[in-house]
Amino acid sequence: MLDSHAGVLPRFTRKQRQQMTDVCFATCSSMPAERKRSENMDEKEVCSFSNKEKEKDRDSDRRPTPARDKAKDEAKMSGKKDSGKEEKRKRMEEEKKKKEEKERKKKEEEKQKAEEEQRKKEEDEKRHQEEQERKLQEEEAKRQREEEAALLKEKEEGHQLYQEAWERHQCRKELRSKNQNAQEGRPEEAFFSRLDSSLKKNTAFVKKLRTLTEQQRDSLSNDFASLNLSKYIGEAVSSVVEAKLKISDVGCAVHLCSLFHQRYAEFAPLLLQAWKKHFEARKEDKTPNVSKLRTDLRFIAELTIVGLFTDKEGLSLIYEQLKNIIGTDRETHTHVSVVISFCKHCGDDIAGLVPRKVKLAAEKFGLAFPPSEIISTEKQQPFQNLLREYFTSLTKHLKKDHRELQNIERQNRRILHSKGELSEDRHKQYEEFATSYQKLLANTQSLADLLDENMPELPQDKTVQEEHGPGIDIFTPGKPGEYDLEGGIWEDEDARNFYENLVDLKAFVPAILFKDNEKSNQSKDKDDAKEVREGKDSASTTEELELELEALDITDEPLELEGPDETENEELAKKLLDEQEQEDEEANTGSHLKLIVDAFIQQLPNCVNRDLIDKAAMDFCMNMNTKSNRRKLVRALFTVPRQRLDLLPFYSRLVATLHPCMSDVAEDLCSMLKGDFRFHIRKKDQINIETKNKTVRFIGELAKFKMFSKTDTLHCLKMLLSDFTHHHIEMACTLLETSGRFLFRSPDSHLRTSVLLEQMMRKKQAQHLDARYVTMVENAYYYCNPPPMEKTVKKKRPPLQEYIRKLLYKDLSKVTTEKVLRQMRKLSWQDPEVKNYLICCMVNIWNVKYNSIHCVANLLAGLVAYQEDVGIHVVDGILEDIRLGMEVNQPKFNQRRISSAKFLGELYNYRMVESAVIFRTLFSFISFGVNQDGTPSLSDPPEHLFRIRLVCTLLDTCGQYFDRGSSKRKLDCFLIYFQRYIWWKKSLDVWSKDHPFPIDIDYMISDTLELLRPKMRLSCSLEEATKQVTDLEREVLVKLGMAMERDGRSSTMGAAEVLDEEDDDGDDDEEGEVETEEQSGNESEMNEHEEDEGSENEEEEREEEEEENTDYLTDSNKENETDEENNEVTIRGGGLKHVACAEDEDFIQALDKMMLENLQQRSGEAVKVHQLDVAIPLQLKIQLKKGVSGQACMAEGDSDSDTMPFVMLTRKGNKQQYKILNVPLSSHLAANHFNQQQAEQEERMRMKKLTLDINERQEQEDYQEMMQSLAQRPAPANTNRERRPRYQHPKGAPNADLIFKTGGRRR
Question: What is the value of pTM for the model shown?
């Protein structure tokens, strides 16, 4: 069957042909990348496809396919192929359109969003502007309303004055006309007969006249109209004159007198005679009644104005009385209120006065006040002169009192600044005088307004505040909050919360638990009130206080301790002993509460934060609040270990928290601390300083919680200052460091604390204290009263600049370098302002922490990969700053210059600059502005050694990498010039025996040179260093064949330039050296900087660095060659030249192979540490000793043979052989060994001396403790010392041995 179908093509169904066309189309249209699939995958697909085709062929083998169908199928396949390409093209166009549509929508959305943000921003700005305008309008409207209201009020007052003045004027004028025409209108005799003449009513009316008031005007007028008082005129006159009237009642009295005058003709003469008698009788009165005098003067003035008295009689009487009042009151001015009342009510008509208020109202509002027409101007003039004379005397009195008040204030301030406190009498005296002065000032102002006179100038004493600085206004109490120094009482907010925000136990604890405390507080309040009253009664006199005004002397006598305090301490000790007995009884009973309290007290030292101590306070108040437990708690707090000073603030907070519920805890603890403090003051010993400091520190902490009164705290400080020696100095400083700031900044204790602080500083100046004590005193003083500092105005920067500074100066560290780099890359580098600011921040490297400078170099190295120009600008800025520092040369820029030098070295380490830049900078340090002839230079004065420090800093940073190739030779060359610069500095005249060359500079130089070239031979003098420089220059010039041209020419940079030229020929050799040396695995050089970035490719990175340096050196050499060509210098070739050949390459390959095999063999071996000191055999030691002694004997005869014996160890086979070598002492080996032996011997002697001193000090301390314990042990008291012992006859038989002093037989 297979043979019959061998030459026939296989027949496929339509479905199979469709599949084949799809496969062909997919194969033709596949990408080139898809054609590169592996052959195995193609074979598998072909095999699977052929198998499927065979299976389908078997099914469709029976149906033959005609040729027409085959042509149709081919046409369909080509059509489908074209349609597939069109579909693909359409699909790609649709995708492209979709992407464009999507981008367009995205741009539109961003544009809309930007427009919305801009619109929102504009709306916010507009709203903000509108709000500001509205606020301004509201403020302006409010101000206008206030002005209108004030103007309206002033206008109303002016109209009211105008109306009152016209009403008063009309009333007086009418009444005057009636009284002057009273004679014509008086009734006849028949009129009186119709009136009531009864005795009862008339006498009752006369009695009413003695107590008449304004309210009785109508009733008295009605009674007067119905009574016939013809026979009672005298009694009525005496009643009116003797009546006790008020100012408001004068109008009613004048009205009644006018009624009397209009009906009875004899009333006015009798009234005038009665007033004269009354005034005559008052002249003899030494202390007249001011109120009666004021009403009487106005009364007669009103009677004169209304015409009851004639002008001559009335005005003469008024003038006489007014003159008497003013004449007797020219000094004291106690009757000024009488004069003011007269001027206010009658001055317009009697004296023609126009008050300033009336004049201003008339001018401002155009009001026409009534003129003074009742009395003529000639009659008014004497009154005006008299009143103005009185006003003049009053102003003189006011000025005198003003000066006196200022003197009193000045004295009080002096007392406050010297004593720190003001007595009650002096304060009371000042308050009384100030009150009288204010009253006098107010009266003077009133009289000046009434007389239309100007007030006198009262100068203020401005020197008071300038002399004494910022103080507390003790004369205006009730304003303590206005006094606040910079920073406040507390150091920070946490301290304020700790000392002020206490837990309110009364809010959590039931009131039944602290019921006893309220009773005790009530009794104590009564006792305190009694003490205050007694204290006021026993106040000192003013003369004694004036004597105490003197400043405190430095040689103060030690303060005597108060007796009542000792009795209080004894009582407290008795209470504690009784409590101890009670506790012993409780211990015997084994109460459960005692175990709880003991556990609580044991846990107290563990309460080392605020939450724990507050919890402990609440726990004690809830569960252990008994009298004995409170005593036990006080004793536990008092006996805090002297080493645990950290517990004192928390224990004080515990006491302050418990104080509202149990005040006796604070009182007992303060009493015990006072007693302990007095004990240490009396003792005056120089031991137990820790205990003393603990006591005063505890007092200071309690004072900050206001448990220990400020007065007692300052008294303790005063006691310490009275004997300001030894331990008292430390105690005073400890007390001030604990609570001095609190006391100095508290308003009620500021002045007294400042006085004590000044006294302490005066004693420090007067006494010759130890330097340690001086430092302690100054620290304590400036902690309490820091010197004034100018407030630095912080520069405001945009948020982006602040963020850049935060990243560079705060966040950047060894760990966060990658994070900061990512943030830096996100900045808008297209903005030149941002880029320039970042470059400026990096150039200002002195703002970065010194230990983080290498992180900035690392950051810059990572940033240069994305922003190349940043690195160039930063390097240029650093080089410019280094050059500027050398030109300016001001010491204030020293730290800045050190940071710049270190940053330049770190930039080299991170491959940001080449080695030629480093060496050019190094040579500029020792050559720029330096005059080698010895003449002084402003750029590098003789006494300035800072350039040496710059060189050492730069070499310490990057010098360790100059260890191969041309950089090594350059560094060797520079170190020779550097030594010459150092010795030139040392040889200058500024250094002498009295002012030697700084030893720290020597140490710094030696450390740097030892790090870079430990085996380098150092110069010992300037001549030797100069000779080395000359030899180096000559050697280089000889190598280049220029000895004849440049024989007499030598410069600092000459050898370096020539060395660059020489390196042009040696670059090829250098590359081979680098490759060879890199294989040796010198890993110690890259440890510091490769730790930051990872040390995976150390060898490759080092090779790249050397290649870059080599390339740069080649370029620099070319530049130097061109420069020398311009200078017309011909270079003659000299020496052997290297010719490359194949043997060299074979040799290098063989050498590399050998080195690699050696490294692989040695990598598995264990590293052995070389033993520095090998043990010498015993017999050889004996020989060495004999040899040394023999040499010592020979040295006496021949001093030139100075040698040191050494033992050389050799190995021959398996045996060790020892040989003795005599090495001369001039060699480095012998000299170093000898110096090492000397140093070890000195160290052993020093340790021996320290050990002996420690033992001696321990024995001395043990002896002092023993003597102290013996001294503190109480001697046994013999109560029967004065009593003769009574003889008691022994019972039983007499003892013969006792009588005859013989030893009996012992049993």
Answer: 0.37
